[in-house]
Amino acid sequence: MTTPAQEAELLARVVKGDHDAFTEIMRSHEDRVFSVCLRIMGSRDQALDATQETFLTTFRKAGQFKGNSALGTWIYRIAVNTCYDQLRKQRRRKTDPLPDHLDPADHSAEDAVDAAGLRPEIQEALAAIPDDFRTAVILSDIEGMALPEVAEILEIPVGTVKSRVFRGRRLLARELGNQSV
Amino acid sequence: MREHELELIAALAEGRLENEAEARALIASSEEARAEFEAQTTALEVLEGASSVRMADAERASLRRDLWTELRAPAPATASSRPWYFRWTPVAAGMFVLVGLVAVLSQSGGLGGMEAADQGADGTTLAASETTDAVAEELDGAGDDAGGEAAEQPTVSTTSNATDGDLGASAPPAAAAFYSAEAEDIRSGEETGPQTRAQDTPSPDELQDCLEQAGLEGYQVQDVNPAPDETDEAEVPDEAVPYIAAIPRDADLANAEVVFVALDMCEVIHIDR
Fold first, then answer.
1. Which of A132, A143, A174 is the closest to B52 by Cβ?
2. By residue range, what is the domain housing residue B49?
């Protein structure tokens, strides 16, 4: 785990174009960024795209990081916003909301779901709740982040995070109940 | 239910309470509290086994390869490297549209008519001058990548977080016209409140909680519409979302400000004055 001083030093090197420093940052955060993106987007392909876009932005905006939060918090904020952008673009194109890896005819989809660690009906229920509530539940209950960190990532008050997590769980339970009907 | 009670239920479901007596008593005494607790525990149980996911080796290799390809690619042409007319063509197009709009409206009722139309409608909807601002903003953003902007912009584009007390919200123009029409129905007494709506209407307490969440403590629920797409109106825009319509307590209904709050997110989406 890198200290804030080490993070600052790594970023300073990235700003100067040091690719090794950027690779080190990526190694520290890429899996968690991918995990967050996968839960939000619901598809591994889309999660990989969002992860790539996240680190592209991180590299290009490295000089703008002010150190007011931890580097990881800043990167996850970029990841969440990138996912939201991609979701908005998808909806404007009116693509199928169900991720293709839930298609029962696609055998590779079963492997992808197993690797994601969520049963299809749970991922489907998560995908059905509003983005803001889903993200709060993902960061808090799946990724195990403390509420203050979630609040920093989403740039909202802790009280709002609590409310979104509470309502997100409620909606998730309702969706699961509807699926069993 | 009050916020304290909801926090108590959440804490009990998460196993964070040292003394569970108060929470247990609440659940035992209230059907609503019991239902909320069951929902919280159901969600937590299904998510319990889930954890962070790692990329497969092939995915990781692909990610890094594509990322470095992108980073090492020549920089895209910036606005300054394009001929000067590339930058000014959108401005010229915007001015052309604006002049045409002014000409059409002048013929129909003069510029004064346009101003009156703006004032008669929702004061927070986009006016022609704001369209020009939007064109200028788009021009300033030319060359920026969407991911870069994503890092600095709020996550929700159509709502404003009213917890800071800022109620300056405006829906997209099509949705704004829909909400304005609904507001007029409310002021005229045609919309008689949540009891006339169909299924899935939250309880009065939940509705009031939602208003408080949106920073509208001094407001009361006047109408709730959980399914605007089922409204009888001929044209319901795609941007219209399930909403609560609220007015200030003790306001004169015929002249009241009507605030629309998204039902799912409890955030202000439109204000009609």
1. A143
2. 1-73
Q: Say if residue B191 is in the same domain as residue B244.
A: yes
Residue B61: list chain A partners with CB under 8 A. Answer: none
CATH topology of domain A1-112: Rna Polymerase Sigma Factor; Chain: A (1.10.1740)
Provide the domain count of chain B.
Answer: 3
ipTM of this model? 0.81
Q: Which residues, in sequence order, are CB contacts of A156 under 8 Å at separation 6+?
A: A164, B161, B163
**A69-109, pLDDT tens digit by residue?**
899 999 999 999 999 999 998 887 765 555 555 444 444 44
Q: Topology of A118-181 in CATH? A: Arc Repressor Mutant, subunit A (1.10.10)
Of A48, A64, A154, the CB nearest to B59: A48
Alpha carbon distances (Å) from A87 to A42, A126, B100, B176, B187: 10, 14, 35, 23, 37
CA distance A141 to chain B (A): 7
pLDDT tens profile A25-73: 999 999 999 999 999 998 899 999 999 999 999 999 998 888 888 999 9
CB contact under 8 A, A137 and B151: no
- Between positions 104 and 133 of A, the ones with CB within 8 A of B are 115-119, 122, 130-133
Per-residue CA distances from A36 to B30, B52, B170, B189 (Å)? 36, 8, 31, 47
Residue B186 structure tokens: 């409310």
pTM over 0.90: no
**Closest approach of A108 to chain B, Cα-based (Å):** 14
